[in-house]
Amino acid sequence: xxxxxxxxxxxxxxxxxxxxxxxxxxxxxxxxxxVGFVYVGPINDGGWTQHHHESAMKMVEEIGSDKVELVxxxxxxxxxxxxxxxxQMALNGADIIFSTSFGYMDPTVNVAAKFPDVKFEHATGYxxxxxxxxxxxxxxxxxxxxGTIAGHMTExxxxxxxxxxxxxxxxxxxxxxxxxxxxxxxxxxxxxxxLYTWMDPAKEADAARTLIEQGADVILQxxxxxxxxxxxxxxxxxxxxxxxxxxxxxxxxxxxxxxIDNWAPYYIERVEAVMDGTWESHNVWxxxxxxxxxxxxxxxxxxEDVKAEALEIKDAxxxxxxxxxxxxxxxxxxxxxxxxxxxxxxxxxxxxxxxxEGIEGSVPQ
Amino acid sequence: MxxxxxxPALLIASLMVAATAVMIAAIGELITxxxxxxxxxxxxxxxxxxxxxFAVAVxxxxxxxxxxxxxxxxxxxxxxxxxxTQFALANQVASxxxxxxxxxxxxxxxxxNYVGIRPPPTPRLDxxxxxxxxxxxxxxxxxxxxxxxxxxLVALTWAFLKYTRAGLILKAVGENHDAAHxxxxxxxxxxxxxxxxxxxxxxxxxxxISLIRVPQWTEGMTGGVGWIxxxxxxxxxxxxxxxxxxxxxxxxxxxxxxxxxxxGVAIPAEYLSMSPYLITIVVLVLMSFDRSGAPASLGRTxxxxx
Amino acid sequence: xxxxxKRPQPSKTLSYITPVLAVLITMVAGGLLFAILxxxxxxxxxxxxxxxxxGEFAFYYRPQLLVKGGPLILIALGLSLGFKAGIWNIGAxxxxxMGAIAGAGVxxxxxxxxxxxxxxxxxxxxxLGGWAWAMIPALLKVKFGTNEILVSLMLVYVAENFLSAMAxxxxxxxxxxxxxxxxxxxxxxxxxxxEIIAGSGMHWGVAAAFIAAILAYVLLxxxxxxxxxxxxxxxxxxxxxxxxxxxxxxxxxxxxxxxLAGLAGMxxxxxxxxxxxxxxxxxxxxTAIIVAFLGRLHPIxxxxxxxxxxxxxxxxxxxxxALQLPAAAxxxxxxxxxxxxxxxxxxTNFRIRITLGETA
Lengths: 365, 306, 360
Description:
A: Rossmann fold; Rossmann fold; 2 domains; 6-stranded parallel β-sheet; 42% helix; B: ABC transporter involved in vitamin B12 uptake, BtuC; 69% helix; 0% strand; globular; transmembrane (chain B); transmembrane transporter activity (chain B); membrane (chain B); ABC_transp_permease (chain B); cell membrane (chain B)
């Protein structure tokens, strides 16, 4: 058991060696900045991970491959494996590491503590530190645009919503879409199916068919595959929206628009900050204004006036003159959440686990 | 809550679609197990079939060729299992698990360039005015060809096992391979054929998901259906018609769950998702009073001592 | 005509040589695969097998081998007892989950109380959770003769659904802003499964794995029960004549396997993983089945096989980020390793004879 004994011996020196190496690495790699990405899915999943990866590659293209080097690892389970993936990158001289799934939060905290000179960026979480920043997107802004189109376009007044995992981000999306659909069409009704997964094409297809059978003629999805769009096309007379990516292969119909995750501007900004030494930890939520939440082209299937109205809301949100959660808004039980003209604060939004008035059913707890 | 939105005829029609992939794969595994071989690699063979079928359908523009390729891909992968367990006499449980691991990896390598592509559509069978009949129309006369192919497969398998000499031999090999060998049957050859058939069916089931039910290619898109197929064979006590029944029951639970959610019923989804497995265990216990189903040599390695 | 002739005794020498042979064949076949994918095969093999052990950062990777290998070894040891006796528990993944839920449940119920007895209690609960989950297929087999392979497999799915119900519901961190997942036990000192020596990777679960290996060795070689297990597997009828009670053996083997898997889950959730989350289980229970076979169902073999398996994971990850190999290529590589290991095993038990002319 040579192996075991050696590990023991090495153990004592590990902590010291790690710090030494991480500081050493920063000096050794002066000219080329090494950027690490940890992905939860495969880089060609067509959804969440693919868009992080494409944004990462756009970042390299923009800054120049002579100045940055990209390393990544795909399909990394959330937990100790993620911790190892990040440590490995840090040991190999990464200057900044992006961990792109909520479940990487605590592992990122752990690794960040071990490598004080490496910068860490965690997506969609809420913990930060001196060398660990958090970033997330205000997807609910995109949902407001989507809800507006959906409310106008539905003829059956039934909108189907394929929800993924019961977390605040998804609940915010449902509420935002509902409020804006209701605003333009008071008769609108939401039917919501929770799938407890971010991507499972077969389940998504079944869910979309079920919603269509129950009368929905507009399908909104917070899951990442194109299966619901395929189901909408098969049924005919049903529209849907791209999610995470543009899903343009289903345009102009059933896909009439989309919410696009575009992390590239953020990645460029943060890597450049590392390069010129101005990087600072923060916890940001960016939306339509910076382009992190993109609205895919609204196709000709949508009437001109509806399109104009949707774009108007989009512009108002981008300029900051309109907030999708502006009172009066009641909670599902009828109690007042926001008074007339009151705007939701980020703290409440971050933990939003309740439906607004008018949505039936309950958030799974 | 609005139950009136649930249309029973449509519900039955969609559970038939939801059940088809798992049913075809389970029929394949049933034949494999009837020959006394336990192949736990169904998931790996399904996903390989899914990607082979998708790639060929996209390449040729023909879903039919796609399904053919899927059956071929599944069978080729199962041949690896056959070599391991029948020639190298490796343990079947371990080999099956290794097959799943290998198949999942292989399929994502093959599928790397097929993400975000739409496969050619598989047309529904045209029954003319029959499809427009109330209730029976959507249930019986408005499906894609594979739904009917699945049903025919069940019937053929049943007839094969019950009425043909080859079926009897297959069962004999699964019941007691030593006796079958003594009677002069080629145990190894029969088992290999059964494994290949199982692989081909699993491949078809996988392609049904990637070409019709979804249709798209994504890594790991079979999402555990192969394991459910394994459960289904047991649930069905190794009887083809019960595979059909079980698949519809499993599919029914899935579809009903979604329908209830959409109708606004708060259901604990996780607990409902457990139910098919718990039901299978109950069936196993009930079945223990009737030992007619399980092949006696299931999972045991055969080697003809000289 | 080529045919196999059963050796009267499995060849001792070959049982040592074949695993090495399999690894070498895998290196060649895997190198070919990497070359087809346009990557340097020599570099890939070096990164997977050599660098984690002797490379620049070996000081980090070696402890990680223990972290990754520990649960595999612990679970595989339990399974091997049953496998030796022809009892097929393939539901260790479920038992692992239930052990973790039971162990974490104790900690979360007591939070934020600090006391020395909390961790021992969690160990007990973890073992009990896994044991109880394994008792379901065991009792059903003993009482009704149901097939334990299938029941234990079904219970994996039940456990997985139960896990996500816990992560989203009862065990959700009340301070977690509504996200699924429990409190992090790493931040709860009384419940944290710490490293025994900092930086060594040697947490209590790894220690338990090595202790279990020694106990399993003693049991199998020096104890009547161990003899009965081996006898039952090799000659069931002879075993019955010599007074072995099959029912008791089933309960013992399944129970032990369940308890060890439960322990592994509990040590994992209290240590490296830290939380109950929907994706807590990453397939240790299934991989351990493979480890048990690679280790030839022998305690020392299992320890080595567990570490080898861990090496392919860790080295594979390193190769991914160093060469940008797709994760799928590593999966295929691992699949190959298993195939070859299983295939070459035939040499241990059989002689290959080549004869001329027809034989039956």
